[in-house]
Amino acid sequence: ADIIKTIVDLFLNRYDGFSNYQKLYDITVEFDYTFIKDNSLYPDFAKIYFNYGASQDSFNLIKDGTPQSFSYTFEFDSTTENDFDVKFEISNGQLDLSNMDYSYLFKCIENPSGNSILQQDFNLNFNGALRNLKSFRYSNSNFLLKTSHSFSTSNDGLIYHNTYGRTNKFEIIYSIKADGEWYTSIFSTNTSESLVRTFNITEFMTNNNLYVFQDFSVEFIIIGNNTSLTVNFIELDISNPSAATILEEYRIIDNILGQTTDWIQFNSSTFTKLGDFGDLPANFSIEYRVTDYAGLQGINTTYNGNYQYIIYSQEKSITLIDDTINLNTNDRDISFTNLGQFNNLDFLDVYINGFRYGTAYLIAGLYKVSFGTQNNVDTLLTYSDSLLSPDIYSNIDPVDHVSWDVDNDDYFATVKHVLIDDDIIITNPILNNQSNQLSIEHLYDRG
């Protein structure tokens, strides 16, 4: 059976009239079918053919008697081809067809570049908008061009170009006339967005050594399938820079608990020490955000040579209520009053001169550390963390293969050959003190 499908002229004429496009289409044929064999004693046959121009494609159909779906897409060139036909050949069976559908897609391929161009654009020209304002010297005024828009796009796997040869799904081309000449600046994105975007004309003129602002226009370009754009408004703001303010904010990130504070407004010039930030975690990062008079924001998270976090401890003055220990009695407690200076923690590690003496527990408003009820090693011996430095080293040279270092978490050992006369010297640098000034008062202007 032959099925002849003629493409109506109305469809072709709609797109073939574009002389700068190749006349190429993707045609997709889809249908559902079931092939049921008549006589199991004889061979069966079921095949589909596509004939278009000088080309023929063929496919075997599934013949197991179950419902099947078929879909095939081929390229059709209306320059040389007028029609196509679909042909079924079957024997010893019944072929039931349903839901046969033909779809045609104009490929939008430009000639001769070969680029896929599917574009919409419009230009908003504001000729004479500044006529009553004469010409502005940018040093006296601040010009902000604001556009409110909603842009959405999706990815169909194809790469599209705009008529400028670029592949950005969305572009805003700002054209600025200054000092008698036109200049352009392009914003582009490939992701959906819905916002008010601000273009700082004054900043653009400053960067390009321009003096007098005379006119402007805005061009919007979108490309690609299923791409849409809604422009809500375009607004030119003219203000006095001296009246504008800069908003400074910070927030603290606790790197241990993963908690982040809200943005807090402040004046960085009045902050000179970490204590100005209030209570701080033991390990934290500072995020700093500044919003300029144009509404543009910048966020900085690293300071002083890209340090990304701060380990912080704060000394607290305490007054011991009971500072006497008598090992011949049961008076073996040291205590001080809880004033919230340690955030009401239930227990504290007690260190004296770097050595740990035990744990102070919060009991009835007092932090108490006890030295037990009897004199033994556990109650009288202080202890510390490991004194083994990660920077420990010796004077031997393992490269000679006659002496060796063994560096373990719990010990450091050095062995030398008996014929080597020099003494073994192990150096264990317990303290490595480094400091770096954090210039809090220059968060905004220096970082």
Provide an overview of this structure:
The chain has 4 domains: 2-106, Jelly Rolls, CATH 2.60.120; 119-242, Jelly Rolls (Sandwich); 320-373, no CATH class; 393-427, no CATH class. It has helices spanning 9-16, 201-207, 377-380, and strands at residues 2-5, 24-37, 45-52, 55-60, 68-77, 84-91, 93-106, 119-125, 136-137, 142-152, 170-178, 181-189, 193-200, 212-223, 228-239, 247-254, 264-265, 283-291, 297-300, 310-311, 320-322, 333-337, 347-352, 355-363, 366-370, 393-394, 403-407, 412-416, 426-427. The chain is extended and about 115 Å long. It is mainly beta. The relative contact order is 0.09. The strands form 8 sheets. Strands 8, 9, 11, 12 and 14 form a 5-stranded antiparallel beta sheet that branches. The mean pLDDT is 81. The longest helix has 8 residues, at 9-16.
